[in-house]
Amino acid sequence: MSLVDTPELTPEQLAQIEREFDPETAFRPTGKIFGYIIATMLVSMSVYHFYASGFGLVRELVHRGIHLSFVLGLVFLLFGVRKTDHIIAPKAWYRFDGVPVLDTILALLAVGAAMYLPLLPAEALSQRVGNPSTLDVFMGSALLLLTLEAARRSVGPTLPIIGLIFIGFAYFGPIMPGALKHGGASWLGIINHLYMTNQGIYGIAIGVMAQYVFLFILFGVLATRIGLGQLFIDMAMVIAGRYSGGPAKVAIFSSAFMGTISGSSIANTVTTGALTIPAMKRVGYPAHFAGAVEATSSTGGQITPPILGAAAFIMVEYLEIPLRDVLAAALFPALLHYFGIFIMVHLEAKKLGLRGLRAEELPKLGVVLKDHWLSLIPLIILVYMILAGKTPDYAAVYGIIACVVVGFLNPNRRLTIKDLLQSLSAGAKNTLAVGAAAATVGVVVGVVTLTGVGFRLGYVVVQTATEIGTFLSALPLLGYFTVTQWALFTSLILIAVSCIIMGAGIPTTATYIILVAVAAPALAVLQVEPIVAHFFVFYYGVLADITPPVALAAYAAAGIAGSNPFKTGNTAFRLGIAKALVPFVFVYSPALLLVADGFTWWLFTVTLVGAMLGIASLGVAFSGYLLAPLKKWERWWVALVSFLFIAPGLGTMAAGLVLMLPIAILQFNRSKTQT
After folding, report:
1. Does a structural domain hold residue 98?
2. Is 501 domain-assigned?
3. H or E stretch including 534?
4. Residue 393: inside a domain, yes or no?
5. What is the pTM of this model?
6. How many domains does the chain have?
7. Distance between the two ends of the chain, CA-based, in angstroms?
8. Are 183 and 245 in the same domain?
9. 8 Å CB contact between 98 and 29
10. What is the pLDDT of residues 361-371, one digit of tens each?
């Protein structure tokens, strides 16, 4: 019997864990009538986006309006006011077929408000921008409030609260303190900017969701349905399962593979963790460590090409560069993340003396390839088209077509019409929460462009960092570095902490868009290259999924492992330390991103080798083991030396190697003695 045949939890239990920790999947059950209506709407949503992106010619504002109307209407039908409202009163008088009548009314109002503006004649709309009518203001106010409520239901309260704070900032500008003070805007002015222009709700965020993200999420669902996800898991077992601590290494490889088609940390954790976490526990890993390995590996899906948890497409729009450049920049930082986890997992296995999986617990390579090789074709087509310079939506459309064709032709996992309809429905369902979040982020970004708060906050960050830098550079030992160097380092620390805090409970893409609007101006003042600034903000937003106290991916893994959630979260953060360090590496040496200015293969090689040595050294320090257990002072020594490796340059790397030599000698002698 292979490992894949022995999951410890039932599918129902896994679904419950995902609903508990991922508000984006907490759908309410409905009766037959609304079930058919909602299923029809979901399938229609997928069919429309596939047609519009691949073969149709829909005006930009109309396309965004249709996408938003689908999202908001379905959110109010599928998400309750509370997660448990259908349990409290499933058959109350104010419900019809499981859905409260008020939610049905709100869904219809949201659809009307979302489509009101796009359906106006272009000439009439151009004349009313800047001078909206009473009906325009009513519809805009309704859409604004319904968007915030939809985000609260599907994502959680944090993002809507941030949206309300920004709206309040726009309205009460004259009474804001210090550099944040501005002239303010009336309610009519706020609605005009957020609703009547493409700078707010109908802005870049919702546009990218409608044009690109929807199709890639649908592609991921279809690719998984035709067997690509199972191929990834089986191949990970074949590659790494037999070695020391094999199941943990399987978790790393399978999560890295799954990250190419899915950008959801929690979904990846539940999908692969259902198999790998019980297996890790069986070979001897502590429960909290097993959960942490899976959570940390699964968050890597959001930084792994070609999807990057939808952030790649936002970067394409903001930076106006080809998608292949964004994916090239993301490749090696993602590999360093997995390398860091692998080192710690390997050392932990050696320290505990853990075995690998037995031959009878592993799938056979020939059987795996025979059963699933066809499922690789859609991914190959998708990647090829992106590398060939095709637009993301074009590549996704043909990837989806390839999934359907392979599904119908594959004799081992044949796709039926019913399966196809269910996949179309599931794909659309998976986009609802991210769509509501994108619309809410549009509100935040709209306020930033209306008030200029991004540049104001950037100024505050730079000024604060400069003052700290002036103080530090005046100290005896720290005066080796200039005020400018300290200002940059301090700014990076402040922005990193802000990203982690903002990322607590907010979807990664939403965090990234908000913080780019606020933090990018500060980094621009410090002469950080735009693509580097975007990746820096993005990486620290992702880190929130494994950073307590709101480490949702780690808590979901703890639910599968039966471990303490907070202990699992702390361990996950320790395992993901590479993700926290890599952004500093590519700020100081942008060559790691391949497409940054000043790139040379020599700089790239030096940076990559140094980063790998530094991450490996940190892994040794955190695990307390190399060839034998390390003493406490040795762990501190190795941790401090690791920063010399991470700092780009041959000189610092050579110094690090010299300082690591005594530890290596001590470890070699100690291992011989113990043997």
Report:
1. yes
2. no
3. helix 530-543
4. yes
5. 0.84
6. 3
7. 35
8. no
9. yes
10. 777 888 888 87
